[in-house]
Give the backbone structure.
Amino acid sequence: WAIRHDDDRPRRIGIAEAVLCSGKTTEQAVAAAEAAFAAHGRCLMTRLSPEAFAALPEAFSSRLDYDPLSRTAVLGAWPEIHDQGSVAVATAGTADVAVALEAVRTLRFEGVASDLVTDVGVAGLWRLLSVRDRLADYPVVILVAGMEGALFSVAGGLLPGLLIAVPTSVGYGVTAAGKAALTSALGSCAPGVLTTNIDNGYGAACAALRALNA
Amino acid sequence: WAIRHDDDRPRRIGIAEAVLCSGKTTEQAVAAAEAAFAAHGRCLMTRLSPEAFAALPEAFSSRLDYDPLSRTAVLGAWPEIHDQGSVAVATAGTADVAVALEAVRTLRFEGVASDLVTDVGVAGLWRLLSVRDRLADYPVVILVAGMEGALFSVAGGLLPGLLIAVPTSVGYGVTAAGKAALTSALGSCAPGVLTTNIDNGYGAACAALRALNA
Amino acid sequence: WAIRHDDDRPRRIGIAEAVLCSGKTTEQAVAAAEAAFAAHGRCLMTRLSPEAFAALPEAFSSRLDYDPLSRTAVLGAWPEIHDQGSVAVATAGTADVAVALEAVRTLRFEGVASDLVTDVGVAGLWRLLSVRDRLADYPVVILVAGMEGALFSVAGGLLPGLLIAVPTSVGYGVTAAGKAALTSALGSCAPGVLTTNIDNGYGAACAALRALNA
Amino acid sequence: WAIRHDDDRPRRIGIAEAVLCSGKTTEQAVAAAEAAFAAHGRCLMTRLSPEAFAALPEAFSSRLDYDPLSRTAVLGAWPEIHDQGSVAVATAGTADVAVALEAVRTLRFEGVASDLVTDVGVAGLWRLLSVRDRLADYPVVILVAGMEGALFSVAGGLLPGLLIAVPTSVGYGVTAAGKAALTSALGSCAPGVLTTNIDNGYGAACAALRALNA
Amino acid sequence: WAIRHDDDRPRRIGIAEAVLCSGKTTEQAVAAAEAAFAAHGRCLMTRLSPEAFAALPEAFSSRLDYDPLSRTAVLGAWPEIHDQGSVAVATAGTADVAVALEAVRTLRFEGVASDLVTDVGVAGLWRLLSVRDRLADYPVVILVAGMEGALFSVAGGLLPGLLIAVPTSVGYGVTAAGKAALTSALGSCAPGVLTTNIDNGYGAACAALRALNA
Amino acid sequence: WAIRHDDDRPRRIGIAEAVLCSGKTTEQAVAAAEAAFAAHGRCLMTRLSPEAFAALPEAFSSRLDYDPLSRTAVLGAWPEIHDQGSVAVATAGTADVAVALEAVRTLRFEGVASDLVTDVGVAGLWRLLSVRDRLADYPVVILVAGMEGALFSVAGGLLPGLLIAVPTSVGYGVTAAGKAALTSALGSCAPGVLTTNIDNGYGAACAALRALNA
Amino acid sequence: WAIRHDDDRPRRIGIAEAVLCSGKTTEQAVAAAEAAFAAHGRCLMTRLSPEAFAALPEAFSSRLDYDPLSRTAVLGAWPEIHDQGSVAVATAGTADVAVALEAVRTLRFEGVASDLVTDVGVAGLWRLLSVRDRLADYPVVILVAGMEGALFSVAGGLLPGLLIAVPTSVGYGVTAAGKAALTSALGSCAPGVLTTNIDNGYGAACAALRALNA
Amino acid sequence: WAIRHDDDRPRRIGIAEAVLCSGKTTEQAVAAAEAAFAAHGRCLMTRLSPEAFAALPEAFSSRLDYDPLSRTAVLGAWPEIHDQGSVAVATAGTADVAVALEAVRTLRFEGVASDLVTDVGVAGLWRLLSVRDRLADYPVVILVAGMEGALFSVAGGLLPGLLIAVPTSVGYGVTAAGKAALTSALGSCAPGVLTTNIDNGYGAACAALRALNA
Ligand SMILES: Nc1ncnc2c1ncn2[C@@H]1O[C@H](COP(=O)(O)O)[C@@H](O)[C@H]1O
Ligand SMILES: Nc1ncnc2c1ncn2[C@@H]1O[C@H](COP(=O)(O)O)[C@@H](O)[C@H]1O
Ligand SMILES: Nc1ncnc2c1ncn2[C@@H]1O[C@H](COP(=O)(O)O)[C@@H](O)[C@H]1O
Ligand SMILES: Nc1ncnc2c1ncn2[C@@H]1O[C@H](COP(=O)(O)O)[C@@H](O)[C@H]1O
Ligand SMILES: [Mg+2]
Ligand SMILES: [Mg+2]
Ligand SMILES: [Mg+2]
Ligand SMILES: [Mg+2]
Ligand SMILES: [Mg+2]
Ligand SMILES: [Mg+2]
Ligand SMILES: [Mg+2]
Ligand SMILES: [Mg+2]
């Protein structure tokens, strides 16, 4: 097998190809990351579990800035920050922070510093209301929530910016695996809430970058 | 076939058997209702569609108090009201009113007058907040919502009473048929929200009666 | 039942409450539209089927600008166009045009003229490639596709703007009801594609408005 | 990330926020529990697996009263018992006891002593009939059952109190993961049976507390 | 197209091929029935809706003994009854009678008279208990129930004979279309309950015939 | 909206674009067919229901060779037959013939005459065995079956040619809508059985054409 | 918690309560088995994995006759064989043997010796045909198959006895977890095939015992 | 249990029975392989995980040519290559290579050398376009893709040969387990794309062999 790195992607859509590590062997992940590094001088690796990180050759892993909570790694140097007032990332619970950090670090990898606001789930509505004005100032807000995902609709009625819902697999029983939060995001009674795949903080960040680049 | 009316049910659990008309032939529905009427002097018929109502023999249907929106009919006289400050019924949208009325009329059939509050969905949060104190006074609140059912969780964090969620089949796409609202009710991040089957206003009323009888 | 129109919504999020007609009785739909009209001097009605339109009182329906393909109606005067280079709407097939027009008319109701490009499904790839430069100029592109929804990923790799996928219920067998196109949108291998509920052209337009207002 | 403990919750709805440990890192779980402890002088932790318990810092875990079967822990002192004749908890099988104990301990954490009755599944109907009078005396009965959940309907026809079904994930094949028991609870032919999420003993207890507080 | 009637089937398995009418055109249904009639001198037609019956050529339909409730028709003469103490058919509700009659008439078509017992659902347990001794005498009992199908398990613990569950599509919400009753039959906590497809009274009768022939 | 007919398709893949009529308005279907006719001098229309056919303008429909069972129409002249010993089409039941004919007529539209063999379902195994040698001679066999789709596996073990399974929506209960037959085709224990979408006789024919063209 | 062993079950339905070990703690499984042993002098334990067996106290496990493939154990002495020509058990593949042995050993625990026939899947049809006469002699045949379960229908057309299908979770992709084989059993085109839950060899044996006792 | 190897299969359909190792015990896998080896002088084993390989007796495993990525092993000598210009295998990503290699090695086991082309997913469309001419020359192309499977449709519009889609379980959230890629393959808007079960590289190779043998 051979890697065909999409080195032309930044020119076409403004975002470099990241390496999705889950499903790849160690050898494949390293080869893909080196191809990206060769093209762009840096590379973002996602869904790199602590076990997969530990299995990497030391000569490679020592070159990574790895965060186990978000399971992301950066090979090469981070870029300068060129935007810091455009994107907020809000989570319903603390278990959603891992996915939120995948978004935060993906944004940061493209030079965008974001504002992370955690634990504002609607069971205690005052928490969201207390950060409402702060969030209302951002053109783009990424909302990260699992279980039944009610946060998406309540935020959807209160905030004017572009809203990107990221349903998470946090939950059990009917909310296990994120399907319940996903259907809440898709079926929201608040107008204009958009959605990514379950646990896809990376995709939410890419969408935010598209909005900022536009 | 023969009807075996459960005439002993009021003694056991305090609620008379109602006649679920969907799925029954005209002849079966009439026979079941007459058996209940014979035992208790009155009978509640549910899920009696306008078409099914029109197909009833005139001698029978003229004895009914029929409401097409809730698709319920009462054969015989309504009882006196013996309770009127215990139960509120709140809906997210106006399309949920049909199901809410099934609950209201079932309660009324057992002598309980309830307080119907409509159109308080969370997309415009001020609507729910404006009725919060009114709803917080009731020991039992029935919540009726379709689409993504975010109302259940927001109300769950604001109201102290027993909360009975009724997911409705109002919606389309992933929210068609009520599954999305149902999973939101079941997976609510607010503690102690309970749920009935989709569109089951009758069951919600029966549960409220159980709580009041206790 | 009483309508609680969310007249404060434009102030909070910049979009007026529209009337979703499916699931409402004729009486409820008219009351909701009149409440919106009273607050804002105009009103958008969605999912108003030809049958439901025909059932409206003539005195009311004669005040509507109704389009049966998109099932939308406008009560009151259309606003001036204030934006016309920001949003394109592209469809995979001609059967997807109905949903696309719901987006186009919702945008137009808020003063945004959009560019409709039809029948660019990937089975004949040259069709999409022939409009690629035209679409690449728009900050926001709404993509409307049913069946397996491959358009979302191909466009996702070619276009730099904010991409809003609208899966449609066009198809049969495993693609009936839009679930297949929806999962393709959510699981796209192209980074940063966002999604609405199935057939939700209205929601896609609202999301585009959020991006433009930001 | 920061914890936003909902310390106002007891005032609003009469129940303190518990810490759901599954999905949280050790550090997050401890921080959440300490925040609750700081606000209320005690804290309930749920879904704390033996593995997660073992991973806690010894200085913290030594302050916990931990029960591995129910996977619950209490930080701080248990309150006095203020109610002991109001709630029974009945299980279909012995494998359901773990979930039942989550309910029992949650109730006890709020000062309510409950009556646990185990192994009364309907395959041997005499077992339920032999405890029928004992259960019929309680205003609230929590029913815990997996597999096909037939207990919910049989108890629903025999007991007058408020019935809270907790479907469990006990089973295999079509009953694996609790969906079958859940649909039996939701679709029960007995009137007024209410339901929680699968395995949600905590939620059932909270609902019972709502009923008792009313 | 040509019909290939399986005229050898009675020799192999003791049951003649019946004509499943749903899905067939009028012409196909008639041709299939005539082929069976030619081979065996009589024919059973199933799932022949009143509309499909009305569309048959009068010269053909006048030769049928048609029952609209069970949607079955017999072409040719009924056989003698050769067995009448072996099979009982019991239903949970009256809406299940249509499916039960499909079983009763299929059995009768093969010369077996069965005992139909209706409306013994477990919501009023005394009903089943009052017919328990009657049903316990039969070597084969066909159980017909929709909604949540709790009857299967309760009867499974009380009756010694071969139990054949027929889940019906009677219900709504999560019990619509019979999936909930089906999973209850499959996952029954009572040992040795067997199941047919949803609404398959015909198959249940054929299985009973296999047991009797054995 | 405008049609973008893929007139280049025959050059690329050897098959002309057909018009899928379901989901299209009358006006759209006619426009699409005329565009294809303009490019190629003939056009195949699929999924044209008798109701949709009746709604066509008479001037257009009079130019069609329409078959209501397969719901296909041909505009313009049929081509010469250039192949007649390569493809057989076999059905499990007579209700599957409609889908089989869609395949037969699509093949014929491209000049391929096929051999239709009906009613060889495995419940009477001698039927399939009696045509085994006939079918074993064809390089390509299209297998059309609904219900549980056991034909696919049995034929898969007996026939050497390329096997294309077409699951049909013939059935009820768990086999309604074709999902059961589809999973049997996909999960067949016989090696190398391939599958199309449910009811997709058109697609099966196109695949056969690809194999013949190769 | 306390065990309520159903010691009356043999009198009611002729089968003793077995102990389902999955889901039970070691302590619960031992207590349940001892209660059964106390009542009947022997006990059958099912779904006792090798890991669970190894975790049992040595003093208890040394009294068991344990078979790891079927995951069954017998405490106490096996009964005499009183029937040996009535039941055959046939499997499609060798991976299905584990489930088949659960049936064989359950039958043997009740004194019935059965005839096990393995690896007769329909991909090589001669295998089933070569044992057809042998199987056709049995009044009851248990059929065990995973993947797409085509064996159920082919055997259903060839064998006259009572047929009990046991779908197994053998397979991957769409056949993983046994749903595909289950729907094939339920939707079989052969008349009178009955079904148990996935992997439920125990239930199939109990049903066979019901048929033999009748 | 006994193995009944289908040694007649090559004569009937031209492909030898392979041994599917998942679900089999070590003893069963070895016995099945030896039976095949005895009949044909060689044997292909599939889904033999590294763990299962390590558990094999050394005397047996030393005779195998094992590839851990594709989890295939060959017992005995590989045959000569007799075809090398007929089949190409293309993957969307590098994580799909494992499944592609199962196809490549199965083909090679039957003497067919194939052309493996990796990492041509549509997110970077130039990758597929750059290999288009190479792939267009093959009569059979196996397409291997996970996530949303858009590759199937794009290739379907560009390549003339027989197209065999193999959806893979590569992905997460809604694309986990391969269902999304599968529905894209089945519902492709490109005509004549055929599909195997998820991850079934073996089946795709067998289908290709059928086409080549025809
Ligand atoms: N966490 C992620 N979730 C979704 N897509 C991703 C993620 N990380 C990388 N990708 C994209 O997945 C696509 C396929 O990845 P690969 O298999 O590495 O070629 C690439 O275009 C990546 O940009
Ligand atoms: N709308 C309803 N939803 C659910 N259950 C109902 C409804 N109406 C009546 N029931 C109950 O359904 C059970 C079965 O009804 P039946 O088939 O009429 O005997 C009865 O015990 C009724 O109390
Ligand atoms: N019955 C059918 N099933 C599946 N696809 C079809 C069918 N009939 C036509 N098509 C294809 O569907 C694609 C989209 O159709 P259209 O929406 O007409 O552009 C075209 O490429 C047709 O070749
Ligand atoms: N990877 C595979 N996927 C699907 N089927 C397979 C695979 N490997 C072998 N088979 C077939 O699976 C059938 C059943 O396998 P067995 O259980 O080994 O008899 C055999 O006919 C094999 O040809
Ligand atoms: Mg919290
Ligand atoms: Mg409103
Ligand atoms: Mg087209
Ligand atoms: Mg037939
Ligand atoms: Mg009744
Ligand atoms: Mg027990
Ligand atoms: Mg084999
Ligand atoms: Mg890549």
The longest strand of chain F covers residues 140-145. Residues 121 and 194 of chain F are 18 Å apart (CA to CA).
